[in-house]
Amino acid sequence: MSSQTSSHTSKRSRNSTPSTRRTWTAAEERTLIDGLKELCVNGWRGDNGTFKPRYLKELECYLCEHHPNSGLKGEPHVLSKIRYWKKCYASIAMLKSRSGLGFQYSDGAIIVDDPKFWMTS
């Protein structure tokens, strides 16, 4: 009988970098929103509707102050979360603009007034 050692092989290649994906807690998301509001109040929002340079670093400091052990960084964590929120907002705004569609804010439900608007021919 031959003796073989089994080695656990990872699906990830040796040259790949570890993932930066993380799950945000509800408290961290609320703090991020509060931080964005603070930036607006303190003049970090430009006339063109965007934030001034270095706003991610400011948000990183704000998050670190309120959640010191979270390890959240301006880039990639905050930037990724803001992009995700923008994508969700764009989808909901498009749906809200369609005729025959309503939105119930209390529970986030989408209401279809007349199903014929959603029928494909």
Would you spell out the secondary-structure blueprint of this structure?
Layout: H1 26-41, H2 55-66, H3 74-97, E1 101-104, E2 109-112
Antiparallel strand pairs: 1-2
Features:
121 residues; mainly alpha; disordered N terminus; extended; two-stranded antiparallel ribbon; 2 strands; 3 helices
Helix content bin: 40-55%
Instruction: Compute the average pLDDT.
Output: 81
CA radius of gyration is 22 Å
Largest sheet composition: 2 strands, antiparallel
Number of strands: 2
Number of domains: 1
Poorly predicted segments: 1-10
The string of secondary-structure elements, in order, is HHHEE
Main-sheet strand order equals: 1-2
Give the distance, in angstroms, between the N- and C-terminal Cα atoms.
Answer: 68 Å
User: What is the general shape?
Assistant: extended
- Structural class of the secondary elements? mainly alpha
User: Count of helices?
Assistant: 3
Proportion of residues in extended strands: 5-15%
Region (Disordered): 1-25
Domain Myb/SANT-like: 23-113
Biased composition (Low complexity): 15-25
Protein name: RNase H family protein
Brief overview:
This is RNase H family protein. This protein is mainly alpha-helical and 121 residues long.
3D structure, described in words:
The chain has 121 residues and is mainly α. The protein has one domain. It is built from three helices and two strands, in the order αααββ. Strands 1-2 form a two-stranded antiparallel sheet. A hairpin with a 4-residue loop joins β1 and β2 (109-112). α2 (55-66) packs across α3. The radius of gyration is 22 Å and the shape is extended. Residues 15-25 have a biased composition (Low complexity). Residues 23-113 form the Myb/SANT-like domain. InterPro entries: Myb/SANT-like_dom (IPR024752). Residues 1-25 are annotated as: Disordered. This is RNase H family protein.
